[in-house]
Amino acid sequence: MEETQVSRTALMTAYLRAYHAMHDDPKIFDDSLAYHLFTEKERAILEQHVARFLQLYDPARAASCPDQATALALSMRVMATSILCRARYAEDSLEKAVRQGVQQYVILGAGMDTFAFRRPEMVKQLQVFEVDHPATQAFKRRRFAELEWELPTQLQFIPVDFTQECLAATLTRSSYAPQTKSFFSWLGVTYYLTRDVVFATLHAITDIAPAGSAIIFDYWDTDAFVPEKASKRVQAGSAQVRNVGEPMITGFDPSTLAADLAPLGLRLHENLSPTDIEERYLRGRTDGYHASEHAHYAWAMK
Ligand SMILES: C[S@@+](CC[C@H](N)C(=O)[O-])C[C@H]1O[C@@H](n2cnc3c(N)ncnc32)[C@H](O)[C@@H]1O
Q1: What is the CA radius of gyration of the chain?
Q2: Residues with Cβ within 6 A of ligand 1?
Q3: Where would I find the beta strands (DSSP E) of the chain?
Q4: Are residues 297 and 249 in the same domain?
Q5: Does residue 37 share a domain with residue 135?
Q6: pLDDT tens string 16-73
Q7: Nearest CA to ligand 1 atom 2
Q8: How many structural domains does the chain have?
Q9: Among the four 143, 169, 205, 278, which has the fewest Cβ within 10 Å?
Q10: Are strands 214-220 and 182-186 parallel, antiparallel or unpaired?
Q11: Ligand 1 centre and the CA of 181: distance in Å?
């Protein structure tokens, strides 16, 4: 991503959550606050951008679409499912972790995540750390100030570029408590980093978190990066984020992930496949939301 610009993909994923909260029922994930993060002008730009996704995915269908609202609704079905399901997975898992004594929640690559405002009943049991690229975090903080949203006292912002700084060193300089059981989420980020940076960051977590801590992250399998094997949806998604300057570069093999994580001191507790995700969050839906073919969700424990 660009050094000084808010992450375009962070704005886009928040827009997808906002649209879902406003238009779809039942909810996969109810981000009732996301809509308010954007000005009307920004919403209109994001709406056009999401509607245009259909041209990448299915040009014939896009050409026969009667209007932007229809293209937008169809694009949502293709683009948004994993963004919604992974957010649901992270917060469902966090709830379980809190019941088991976790007291710190570290949201890596937080983007426009609204957890700290949306879930006050959970926030009061936690210290929350939003870690993100400095440019994205600065945008978000400005936006909160413009909206005059009062920051919860439990919330801290930590700017980090994962490619330049060690997460453990940065957290050590904050009020993060290394002896306190912690839950880390890392949604929609591994794709954009090299394998080395992903593993270095996971290693930093094992350095700074006590036993019983957890990390949840989503990833694409390696087939997503092989043109002959990648689904049409994933190819269109890749093209779209490449067009906004945030190319996806890294995937992992679900069958070797446990072995890949073991040397970092992490035990793979859960590794949801697209079939698992469909079964857990999308079964019985008739509105066209289906699990993304190459998206997987990992939950690793120290
Ligand atoms: C697709 S967005 C995901 C945001 C949010 N987690 C979500 O699910 O909507 C990618 C996020 O990764 C962050 N990011 C990308 N590269 C990064 C880097 N090198 N260091 C820190 N954050 C980075 C961006 O700032 C952005 O917030």
Answers
A1: 18
A2: 1, 7, 9-10, 13-14, 109-111, 113, 132-133, 136, 160-163, 187-189, 192
A3: 104-108, 127-132, 155-159, 182-186, 214-220, 267-272, 295-301
A4: yes
A5: no
A6: 999 999 999 999 999 999 999 999 999 999 999 999 999 999 999 999 999 999 999 9
A7: 10
A8: 2
A9: 169
A10: parallel
A11: 24
Q: What is the pLDDT of residues 219-247, one digit of tens each?
A: 999 999 999 999 999 999 999 999 999 99
pLDDT of residue 1: 62
Residue 240: CATH number of its domain: 3.40.50.150
DSSP 8-state code for residue 37: G
**Residue whose pair of structure tokens reads 């960051």 in the numeric block:** 201
136, 190, 217, best to mutate for ligand 1 pocket (most atoms within 8 Å of CB): 136
Which two tokens mark 21?
């909260």
Q: Are 22 and 154 part of one and the same domain?
A: no
Q: In the chain, which residues have pLDDT < 70? A: 1-2
Residue 200 C-alpha to ligand 1 middle, in angstroms?
16
